[in-house]
TrEMBL record:
Record-level Gene Ontology MF annotations: heat shock protein binding
Keyword entries, A-Z: Cytoplasm, Repeat, TPR repeat
Protein name: TOM34 protein
Source species of the chain: Circaetus pectoralis (black-chested snake-eagle)
GO BP term, pick one: protein targeting to mitochondrion
């Protein structure tokens, strides 16, 4: 797979196959990086979404809540590579291929800023995280908003959604979770937080639908099961 990627950088098949090999070897951090890189190339690949979810669970069990801090850097896929893979080939037509703009995936960094923009976005997100720990959710929203201008990332959207929930800005929380789910359709945090916001907006049917989607991925999620009980009583 490495040899194939040397010849065709950011090739989908070698990325996915190397990720699967790393996963089999229990090298979960490297598998996670490859799955995330594949999603930058094409955010519609279900196998990559499923791989990210599996690796997230494995790393959480192995390294605890700070598992992200131990990850090797995730390479930034240039727009040229994303565009290349968005064009259906003659031998393997993709009738339902999404338009090139839909393949920005996660992270969707600003074209002009490149690596510098990605680093700045990460710094701003981390500053937002620190402000959340201090209980300053309003200021954290500003940091996350600045970060998202540079790089669209699922975690940044779900973090800002948490702030909006705390600030009782439920419509904004729903919007952020919807954006996060556009990048990662099975993201557990986005489904749970959108369900919380929808409950506060008294849209119980939609809230229940989100919780049921979450439970398909994590059937024993106690917080989700508790929220579903509350919704059924509402």
């Amino acid at each position: 797979c490495r040899s194939a990627l040397d010849l065709v950088p950011f090739g989908i098949k070698p990325l996915l196959r190397r990720a699967a090999a790393y996963e089999a070897l229990e090298r979960y951090q490297l598998a996670y990086v490859d799955y995330k890189t594949a999603l930058q190339v094409d955010c519609s690949i279900q196998a990559a979404h499923d791989g990210v979810n599996r690796m997230t669970k494995a790393l959480l069990e192995k390294d605890g809540v700070n598992w992200r801090q131990k990850l090797p850097p995730i390479p930034t896929v240039p727009i040229s590579a994303q565009t290349r893979w968005s064009v259906p080939s003659a031998e393997a037509p993709r009738a339902n291929a999404p338009p090139a703009t839909a393949l920005r995936g996660e992270p969707g960094e600003s074209d002009a800023l490149g690596g510098a923009g990605t680093e700045r976005a990460q710094t701003l997100k981390e500053e937002g995280n620190e402000l959340v720990k201090k209980g300053n959710h309003k200021k954290a929203v500003e940091k996350y908003s600045e970060s998202l201008k540079l790089r669209q990332e699922c975690a940044t959207y779900t973090n800002r959604a948490l702030c909006y929930l705390t600030l009782k800005q439920y419509k904004e929380a729903v919007q952020d979770c919807t954006e996060a789910l556009r990048l990662d359709p099975k993201n557990v945090k986005a489904l749970y937080r959108r369900a919380q916001a929808l409950k506060e907006l008294k849209d119980y049917r939609s809230s229940i639908a989100d919780i049921k989607s979450l439970l398909k991925t994590e059937p024993k999620n106690t917080a989700a099961l508790r929220l579903l009980q509350e919704l059924n009583r509402a």
